Amino acid sequence: GAVVSQHPSRVICKSGTSVKIECRSLDFQATTMFWYRQFPKQSLMLMATSNEGSKATYEQGVEKDKFLINHASLTLSTLTVTSAHPEDSSFYICSATFIRVEAFFGQGTRLTVV
Amino acid sequence: TQLLEQSPQFLSIQEGENLTVYCNSSSVFSSLQWYRQEPGEGPVLLVTVVTGGEVKKLKRLTFQFGDARKDSSLHITAAQPGDTGLYLCGGGKLIFGQGTELSVKP
């Protein structure tokens, strides 16, 4: 399958700071990337869908000013958690797709806000 | 709104037992995917089913897509401890079922 790389895999930050997470498709051009949040032993909750060169589409209840998504190229999307708070601590996962029905996932980022 | 209902959400069995996980919806999907996720990792695609009534096998795993393309099942034969993980069905705009946390005890 295609390779999607997510970085960093773990990050600890202080409350009030911002954190940027990168999602790269390494061997294909991703027309669409998805960002998910996952709580322990639960499924993935879709946060937003981003298409290269256009604004991200956020799911209901997700604050777009808090979770900034940029999809500047066909191989890179970034999620920035702004003014992070402890309740933002979670496992964030990206996935990427190119016209196909399947999506391929990054390894995930464990964010801990202290 | 498309929704996927997955059951059971938790399953703890002994090595060697068989199990089935179900993924149901009231909506028709053009395809459904099954993923397996280990703790601290992203989900890994196992299979995609596209045709109504389709059956796909992956070693001891058998995947079936319902005739009406509204449901799917994953059957594991003679489960092994290495099968332990979170199993997710996904479809449509990459929405997911609630997941099935499978634990196979030796």
Give a quick rundown of the structure.
The complex is a heterodimer of chains A (114) and B (106). Chain A is an all-beta fold.
SSE class of chain B:
mainly beta
How many H/I helices of chain A? 0
Largest beta-sheet details of chain B: 6 strands, mixed
Q: Termini distance of chain A? A: 36 Å
| Number of helical stretches of at least 4 residues of chain B | 0
- Strand/helix succession of chain A: EEEEEEEEEEE
| Low-confidence runs of at least 5 consecutive residues of chain B | none
Relative strand content of chain B: over 45%
pLDDT average of chain B, as an integer? 92
What overall geometry of chain A do the principal axes of the alpha carbons give?
Answer: globular
- Outline type of chain B: globular
The radius of gyration computed from the alpha-carbon positions of chain B, rounded to a whole number of angstroms, is 13 Å
The tally of strands of chain A reads: 11
Structural class of chain A: mainly beta
Quaternary: heterodimer
Strand content of chain A: over 45%
Descriptors:
heterodimer; A: 114 residues; mainly beta; B: 106 residues; six-stranded mixed beta sheet; five-stranded antiparallel beta sheet
Overview of the structural elements:
Chain A has 114 residues and is an all-beta fold. Chain A has no helices and eleven strands. The model of chain A has no long low-confidence stretch (mean pLDDT 90). The termini of chain B are far apart. The chains are: A mainly beta (114), B mainly beta (106). The interface between A and B is medium-sized, with 23 and 24 residues.
Topology:
The complex is a heterodimer of chains A (114) and B (106).
Chain A: E1 4-7, E2 10-13, E3 19-25, E4 32-38, E5 44-51, E6 57-58, E7 67-73, E8 76-81, E9 90-97, E10 104-105, E11 109-113
Chain B: E1 5-7, E2 10-14, E3 19-24, E4 32-37, E5 44-49, E6 55-58, E7 61-65, E8 71-76, E9 85-91, E10 95-96, E11 100-105
Parallel strand pairs in B: 2-11
Antiparallel strand pairs in B: 1-3, 3-8, 4-5, 4-9, 6-7, 7-8, 9-10, 9-11
